[in-house]
Design a protein that fits this description.
The complex is a heterotrimer. Chain A is an all-beta fold. Chain A has 4 helices and 49 strands. In chain A, the strands form 4 sheets. Chain A has a 26-stranded antiparallel barrel. In chain B, strands 2, 3, 4, 5, 6 and 7 form a 6-stranded mixed β-sheet that branches. The radius of gyration of chain C is 16 Å and the shape is globular. The chains are: A mainly beta, B alpha/beta, C mainly beta. At the A-B interface, helix 2, strand 32, strand 34, helix 3 and strand 35 of A face strand 1, strand 4, strand 5, strand 7 and helix 2 of B.
């Protein structure tokens, strides 16, 4: 009978369709449905299981009871009773326990729409009530939460209200207590923390640092003012000096970015003066190619870092740069130009300041670099510099430099090249009268032609080595430079210094940097490079280089500008051997032989074995015949050995160590020993660090010890003083074990 | 002893493309990649990605200057300059997985008495590092897996006799 | 619709016989019962009438189906089961044996469905069936009030 209704087939699955199964059901069609007995409701990506359920179709609202389990993608909420509006994702549930996202280690890309697994931080816990306050938003009342696997109660963040917002990925806990192994270790009225582990947490993590620089407690507070503007305010309580407030403001906009950091200590107890430090940087792009910015570093007094900084800070903050610049660069077919105007000066932290150590200030400096391709393989380059040098004690004046040059690509193949180059360096000095003598300033000009030719060939062959195929290259290179000798002893030295003799320097015309000294040259540099390149990936596994310079006329220019004669006609044999031999082994070594004294000038050897994150051993030996071993006037032999180790010593336990020993002084320079424990959702670090500096002409011997203890709660942030930055510096290849899956 | 001029004999490996566009972005490595590629006379360098068989783009570039040695007087006398960059190659419209990552290191001997001079020496080393990185990256291009079937764009561009001999 | 109750009942079938004494009629083979908008198909139907004229009906068959128009709305109610018992007084229809009731786009599936055609109240249970069968309801999202009323399911010209 054709007009009989066909068998009633379920409607096709559609967005928003609700599928309810149970043992028993009754209700009124299109209005209310009461189901009982293992009720399962499936709606899009939400699944609800309960003992009984009332479903109000008009409001799309469900009430479920005695025990329910609501699953949405990776989030699971279970509890006793539930009242939930499926459309608005609002409602509440009693006695919830929840699991927000299960961290699956192999988070496949393109997983569920929003799955916490991709970010790996899964929070779980329970509470007295949960309120659903919108899609991906929960408010938990009297809850406790942690990021450990179910059953691991090593720590909990307990709070009266906890808002988890997975659209902004921020969790905010109010009236919160942090309990570790049951012991309350921190109370805070308000904290926010990242749910995807990306942003710094606002958690008030007290960090403390002890040691010879006094005991210092810091309470950093992170405040995310706007998505691209944040601030960290850190009051420091220093028993020796008093309380200091540190503030850091960072901003990042499409057109500009920068940061301002300051430390302010009113009325230091020891010196009863105000102590402060400023570090600010800013970079802004006004138009394509036109940028400007500044870098401002300044501290209140010379001993600032010896009072408030550790050994590294003291060592790296001898000259603090203050600089503002405007830069314009543009390019066209076959050429480009870049010009910069800047004002720069340094604050030298030395007590007493040695005049030679205090760098000149460039108030202002204009530089220009232009390149232009010309026909017939020629290319033109112009370097220009106009600077007004200022200095409290030394000779000051203005300098104008113009160094045009033309390079001819006589031969340009990938198997070889010959590039003769000819240029003229014109420099003009307008010097001010020096000190009290009344003679007026003087003008000096220096014009020097510079001729050089760089040439090289490239040979290859296939070889086998240790059972795999390599391409072995042999690349001889010859570099000739001719610069006539010129006495420059009357020319002051504003910004020149002698470059370190290495392979980059071996193939540059002038062995001095800066423009005040141009060495006389009639020399030929010969070098050969051989590389071992893996045949399947083309990655360079090993590189050997050997180079030497020959002087046709044994005269040269010293840093003071006068002419010196060389004992013999070759200087400096240079060698280097190194490369990433395999994924785990890395070798770096260089060697320099000094012909004049026929002695080894310097060599260093570094071997690193780093098979996997958390496993690294690095050994480095440095030998220097005549190096700066103290402050800037103290030179002598250097023999230093550094060992850095991070290695697992037991399941989830890692030992870290660093030993830096000066063989010449037979004294340790740096000890660092520590242990790290990673328990999946929390990591503890205990590190002791002892640095000792030997006596120098201007400072007495001193040792400083630093004790670091840190408790890092995964997803919440660290508590205590973090040694990770010190460890990264001390141990090449160090990796943060909280990132390693605790196996 | 079996050596031959590069690209002249033996199983020298030609580049898997005849035309390339280097998307420099704001990186410093981009211009040097472009300049080094320009030295290969068999290669056509284009100023737009449309016609290019290969597109090189510098995805990320970061350089760090870390203290590597503090001498017994507590002064820095050596910095380690480490540079890493990652470059993506798109051959015939198909990105080659994985992206090429290169890292190069140099040690800078340092003294606080020559701040201005060392500033320029450091710049010299950074240029040397980037040139070294560019050369290694370009050498690795020859070892990239050939695209399954050369992209349509390459057909129109392949001059008749430019078929590199196998 | 409520109005169906006053409409005459037409019954057509291959065979029918009447037991005057007990007031029971039995129809067999392609039974079609029509009363106003109500239409019922079955293989066998027995209609009995008590003295006051209240009728109860029991339809059985491989698949008994019925359709009836809802009151005032342009919706239909459809049902199917192995057996249907309908009592015109209580207006309660009891569908037993993989019973299904569809109203608009919502569908209810179970072993025993009792449905009151007047109050639209229904009750679905797995009944005494051996395998502890489950009951299911599939509810379509209610159309947003701004969209036109649900499109009439095609294929069921009045």
């Amino acid at each position: 009978d054709d007009n009989a209704p066909q068998t009633l087939t379920p409607p096709p699955a559609a967005q928003g369709q609700t599928h309810v199964t149970a043992d028993h059901m009754d209700g009124q069609m299109q209005d209310k449905l009461k189901a009982s007995g293992d009720v399962v409701v499936i709606r899009d990506n939400q699944t609800l299981e309960a003992d009984w359920l009332d479903y109000y179709q008009q409001q799309n609202r469900v009430k479920a009871g005695n025990h329910f389990r609501l699953t949405r993608e990776k989030d699971v909420v279970t509890g006793t009773t539930l009242d939930y509006w499926m459309d608005e994702h609002t409602g509440s549930a009693q006695q919830p326990s929840f699991q927000m996202g299960t961290p699956d280690t192999n988070n496949k890309p393109g997983g569920a729409k929003r799955s916490l697994a991709q970010s790996g931080i899964a929070f779980r816990g329970d509470g007295s009530e949960v309120q659903f306050t919108g899609p991906d938003q929960y408010r938990l009342i009297n809850s406790r939460v942690n990021s450990c696997v179910v059953g691991d109660d090593s720590w909990y963040l307990k709070s009266s209200t906890l808002d988890l917002n997975y659209t902004t990925n921020i969790g905010i806990a109010r009236n919160a207590r942090l309990e570790f192994q049951g012991v309350p270790i921190l109370y805070t009225p308000w904290i926010d923390f990242p749910l995807d582990g990306s942003r710094k947490s606002g958690l008030l993590t007290p960090t403390f640092r002890s040691g010879t620089t006094g005991f210092d407690i810091a309470l950093p507070y992170y405040w995310n003012i706007a998505p691209n503007f944040d601030a960290t305010l850190t009051p420091h309580i220093n028993l020796k000096h008093g309380t200091m407030l540190a503030g850091e403001f960072r901003y990042l906009e499409p057109g500009y970015e920068g940061s301002i950091y300051t430390e302010q200590l009113r009325n230091d107890k020891l010196t009863n003066t105000n102590r402060y430090a400023w570090y600010a940087t800013h970079k802004q792009t006004v138009l394509p190619g036109l940028t400007f910015g500044y870098e401002y570093n300044y501290v209140s007094d010379v001993d600032y870092f010896s009072d408030f900084g550790d050994r590294t800070l003291q060592a790296t903050n001898v000259n603090l740069k203050r600089e503002a610049w405007v830069k314009y660069s543009t390019g066209w077919q076959g050429g480009n130009v870049e010009t910069m105007l800047r004002a720069q000066r340094y604050q030298t932290l030395e007590d007493p300041v040695i005049a030679a150590d205090q760098p000149y200030a460039r108030l202002p400096q204009i530089t220009l670099v232009a390149n232009q391709k010309l026909p017939a393989g020629l290319s033109f380059n112009l370097q220009g510099d106009m600077t007004r040098f200022a200095h409290p004690t030394l000779q000051t004046g203005d300098r104008f430099v113009a160094y045009p040059s033309v390079t001819w690509s006589l031969l340009e193949r990938n198997w070889g090249f010959i590039r003769p180059k000819f240029g003229v360096n014109y420099t003009k000095y307008d010097l001010n009268p020096l000190g009290s003598n009344t003679t007026p300033g003087s003008t000096i000009t220096r014009t020097l032609p510079i001729f050089s030719t760089d040439s090289g060939l490239s040979f290859e062959r296939e070889t086998r080595f240790h059972g795999s195929d390599y391409v072995e290259t042999l690349e001889p290179r010859l570099f000739y430079v001719y610069i006539p000798a010129k006495d420059q002893s009357k020319i002051p030295n504003f910004d020149s210094s002698e470059n370190d003799f290495n392979f980059a320097q071996l193939f540059s015309e002038n062995r001095f940097s800066g423009w005040d000294r141009i060495n006389a040259a009639n020399q030929l540099t010969a070098a050969v490079t051989s590389r071992l390149i893996s045949s399947e990936s083309g990655i360079e596994r090993l590189r050997v280089m050997l180079g030497q310079r020959y002087y046709f006329k044994n005269e040269d220019t010293s840093l003071y500008g006068d002419q010196i004669t060389l004992q013999n006609n070759s200087k400096g044999l240079l060698g280097s051997l190194g490369g990433d031999l395999t994924k785990a082994w890395r070798l770096d070594s260089t060697y320099e032989y000094n012909q004049d004294l026929s002695k080894t000038q310097r060599y260093n050897l570094q071997v690193r074995y780093n098979p996997a994150p958390g496993k690294t051993v690095s050994l480095r030996y440095r030998y220097g015949r005549y190096e700066q071993i103290g402050d800037t006037t103290q030179y002598g032999p250097l023999r230093q050995i550094d060992l850095g180790v991070q290695w697992p010593i037991a399941r989830q336990w890692y030992a870290v160590g660093r030993e830096s020993y000066s063989l010449i002084d037979n004294k340790p320079l740096e000890h660092l020993l520590g242990v790290e424990y990673n328990d999946g959702c929390w990591t503890a670090r205990f590190v002791v660090k002892r640095d000792s500096t030997l006596a120098t002409t201007i400072s007495s011997a001193s040792t400083s010890t630093g004790v670091f203890f840190q408790l890092e709660l995964r997803g919440l942030g660290g508590l205590g003083s973090s040694p990770t930055s010190d460890l990264k510096l001390a141990i090449p290849g160090y990796s943060n074990i909280s990132d390693i899956q605790s196996n | 002893c079996g050596f031959h001029l590069k690209g002249m004999g033996g199983s020298s490996r030609p580049l898997p493309f005849n035309s390339v566009y280097v998307e420099e972005g704001s990186s410093k490595l981009g211009p040097i990649l472009h300049e080094t590629l320009a030295r290969n006379e068999k290669l056509v360098l284009l100023s737009a990605p449309k016609q290019a068989e290969a597109v090189l783009s510098v995805l990320s570039e970061n350089q760090a200057r870390e203290v590597s040695t503090i001498n017994s007087g507590g002064k820095v006398n050596e910095y380690l300059l480490s540079y890493t960059a990652s470059v993506r190659t798109v051959l015939g419209g198909v990105p080659v997985e994985p992206d090429m990552v290169i890292s190069v290191r140099r040690y800078l001997n340092y003294s606080d008495s020559d701040v201005l001079g060392k500033e320029q020496e450091e710049a010299l080393l950074w240029n040397d590092i980037r040139r070294d990185a560019a050369e290694q990256l370009i050498r690795r291009l020859a070892y990239l897996p050939r695209p399954a079937q050369p992209g349509k764009a390459s057909q129109s561009l392949k001059p008749a006799n430019a078929q590199p001999k196998p | 619709e409520k109005a169906d109750r006053d409409k005459p009942i037409e019954i057509s079938a291959d065979r029918g016989n009447l037991d005057q004494l007990k007031g029971v009629t039995v129809w067999q083979g392609n039974v079609i019962i029509i009363q106003g908008t109500l239409k019922l198909n079955a293989d066998r139907a027995t209609v009995s009438q008590d003295k006051q004229g209240n009728q109860t009906m029991q339809a059985t068959g491989r698949q008994v189906t019925f359709r009836q128009k809802m009151d005032g709305k342009n919706d239909w109610i459809e049902g199917q089961a192995n057996q249907l018992d309908y009592n015109t007084v209580t207006h309660v229809a009891v569908l037993t044996g993989n019973a299904r009731v569809k109203r608009g786009n919502d569908l209810v599936i179970g072993n025993v469905i009792t449905y009151n055609t007047e109050t639209e109240m229904y009750e679905v249970s797995s009944g005494a069936s051996s395998n502890g069968g489950r009951v299911t309801a599939i509810i379509q999202p209610k159309p947003r009030d701004n969209s036109p009323a649900a499109k009439k399911p095609d294929g069921n010209a009045p």
